[in-house]
Structures are given as C-alpha cells and as structure tokens.
Specification:
2 domains, 73% helix
Length: 532
Amino acid sequence: MSNDPLVPPARPSVSALLLGRPSVRGRWAPAMRAGLAFLIPALILLACDARSNAVLAALGSFAVLFGERRPYRIRWKTISTAGVLLILVVAVFGLLGHWVGPDASVPRELVSVAALGALAAVGVFVVNALRLGPPGPFFLVLAGGVAVLVGRAGLSVGLLVIYTAAGAVASLVVSIAPALWRPRGPETAITEAALAEIEQFLADNREPSRRHGVAASTLTAWSVLHDASQTDSELAHRLWRSHNQVHDAASDEFIAPLPRPGIGYRLRSAARLDSHPAVTAMRATIAALLAGGISVVAGLGRPDWAILGAVLVLQMGPDRVRGAVRGAQRVVGTFIGLAIFAVLHALDLHTVALIIVLAVLNVMIELTVTTNYALAVTFITPLALLMGAPDRPLLEQMGSRAAETVLGVGLAVAMASLMFARIHRRTLRAADDAARTACVEVLQTAADQVPSTPTMRARRRDLQWQLLESELAATDSANDEPAWARDYWPRHAAVRAVGYDTLSACWRAGPDTLVRGEALAELSSRVSATDG
C-alpha cells in the first residue's frame, strides 16, 4: 500500500488472494458450535424417527453463524432473529415447492427462480446497507433453494418447519452456552483487537493508510461495548484512553462515543441507486435471475444451484478483482466438493454416519468461510447436496451441478464487470459528498454546542460512519479503475483528511469546551475547498 495519501492503494495481488492460507486462529470454538448446532438436533430428530430427513436440521443450524462476534446480551436476539427468518424462508419456499410440483412446467419453475431472486435482492441490500458482514444472505438463499427442492419431493411443510426450528433452537443453546464460563469474551476480543490496531497506528507515526483501519475497528469496538452494556467498564476506559491518543486529546472526563448509527439511518443512507448496497443488490439479482432462468430452460435440474453460484460471488459487493477471484474459488471449491459428494454418495452411509459427516462439514465451513472461499465452498457443496439430492444418476447430478456453478459464476463475474461498468465513480463521489455534508453539519453545530451534547455526539458519529463508507467506495474504485482513481484521489484524500481532522478537533476540545473558533474557521475553509 502506498504511503502517499494522495495516491490510491495498488490493486491486490490475484495470486495472494487465490492462494491465501486461511487462519483458524480463534475460529475453533465457533466452528465447534456450528457442528454441535446441527449434530444435537439431528440426532434427536433421528431418535424421533425422522430418518434421513433429520439432516434438514442443518437448515436451522445456519442461525449459529449469524451470532458470532456478538456479545451474549444481544447474541440471543441475533440468533433468534436469524432462526425465525430461516423458518419463514423454508415455510414459504416449501409451500412454493409443493405448488411447483415434481413434474413442473417451465413457467412454474421460473416463478420459483423469481422468488429466490427476490429473496437475494432483499437480503443482499439489507446486509450491505447495515454492514453486517459474513455470512451474508447466502445461507438464507440456500435454505430457500433446499426448501423448494424437498417441497417438490413431497415433504410436508409442517415437518420441514419442525426440522428447521430444531436446528435454530440448538443454535441458540450452543451459541449462548459459553456465557456461563466467559461472559465477556466477545466484547473483550473485539476491543483488544481495536486496541492493537491503535497501538500499531501510533507506532507507525499515524500512517494515513492505517487511519481507516483504526476508525473501523474502533467504531466496531464501541458498538460492541454498547451492545454488551459495558460502556463504563475498565475495558471501555482503556479504549477511551487509546482513542484520546489517536486524536492527541488530553481530556480527563470519560464519555463513551456513540455506537454505530441506527438501522433506519443506515437503510436511508443506502437508499440511492448509486450506493454500494443498491448496486450490489441489482447486480446480484440480475445475475441470479439470469442464471436460474437459463438453468430452467436448459433443463439442468437445480436452478437454485446456479442462483447460489451468483449470490455467493456477489453478495458482499466485491470489486472486480476480488469478484473474479471469488468466482474462481467458487468453481474450484465446487468441483472438489462434488468429488467429496461422489465419495459420500458411493459409501451410502447410514443416517447416523451421514449426520456425523455433515456436522464435520459444518465445522469446516465455519473455520474457512471468512478467510478462504475456495475451501469454504469445498465443504458447502457436499453439505447442500446431501440435504436435498434428487433421485437422479450420480454422474448426471455432478455434471448438472458443475454446469450450473460455471453458469452462475460466469454471470456474476460478467455483472461485476459489465453492469454499471463505471458506477463506482458515482458511488465514490456520492460517498465523498455525504461525508463532506456530515462534516459541514458537525462544524456548524460545533459553533455553539460543546462536543458532548446529544446532537454533537450523533453528528460526530454520523461523520465517522460516512467517512468509513467513503473509504470503502474509494478502495473499490481504486481496484476497478486505477487510472480514474489516481486522477480523482486528491479530492477524496482531502475530504477524508478534513473529516478526520474535524473529529480530532472535537476530541481535543474536550467534552465540555467549545471547539476553538480559529480551528472551526480553518476546517470550514478546507471543507469548502473540496466542493465539486
């Protein structure tokens, strides 16, 4: 990365992205929870005579993935919400599968494709607008696709809901259980990571290229401390002292910064056609609909598989370089996963053995899903196929799944490159304008309000949020169109610099002292210079 703040970062190395080794540090505990969230309900369902359908508990066990890195005080709400959404999805798409039927007409199959596309559209937009991060909406779309398949095979929706609910309840239990012996574990780990980021930033003499990482990790830590109701803890005081060091502040009065903006604010901020969440949702939806539609017309048998290929590549809105790499990882991972599926299919495992294998696959998915898509997809593929494999010859299944994967991935990469090919320019300009506007609001309010008033605290928080959004858009532009980014970068750098300097001025003033008039005038002049 360049140390010159007026020069955009270099494109990431394709080989490094492709061949990066996944780190499992700190991942074993959540991975074991993911395995147990499926294993326990599946074995109970098997004992209750669910037979091979017991593996469908995996649909609800996906809820455990949404609770990691969240304090226990809200983790139960997050997992419960994810569980309810998974249950609703399998109920709706299970009914849709019954309506489509085993020998469906092309129009009815296209209706199921449209429904999955709509699910992907809403999920991708909301996840990106709220910046929820992994695992994203992929597992909701996966649950919907499997529900359509088993619904077409004749499984009652009531039983499908029961199996999914069993997995969701188990997810809640195993994810909350560690609170008994390490009740402050999540917020401690996240805050310590933010403290380490700040320490490195200070050791590097406030290297501008690290400023975004410090801001992102610090906001995450404060948000998590608020979620955990630990804003007056020793951990919070340590973070506050380090935050003061970042801004060269010397205040002795502790007031914890506000957490991330509310859900309404985040959704409204993203409600523009050129926003990153909106563009990502449009690309993912069009790719999903085209992939699913072509799969239906070509008679490949699993349009949901083609849709999943597109969604997995595009769901988090990667730039073109990362999108192409993720697509390659999806293809390679799927092919290896198909080989694993073939071996398991040939072994014709007893249901107990199959449940154990699926639990192991859940563990491996959680270990790799945030660090190496190729490995994660290697384990997702046999898991998804074993939950809903149609009664067709093995080689035919493998050939169709391979074709659908290539189809979905190819369309996803094409959408990232060709659909709104230069939209990143508008996205970055709009993000910089939003950050600039937020900066103006802080400076105007600071003229007669001290930094600790509710209005000032909210506007400082919103400025921080917009600066992070701007930096994400800038990174995408630097990777998508380096030549244009180099020409535009001085303006972005100026907006970024004056935004962070405005935040620093508020910190240095202290909570109950007005920002100096000379500082406000100088910052206002710099903001005006970034207009246009």
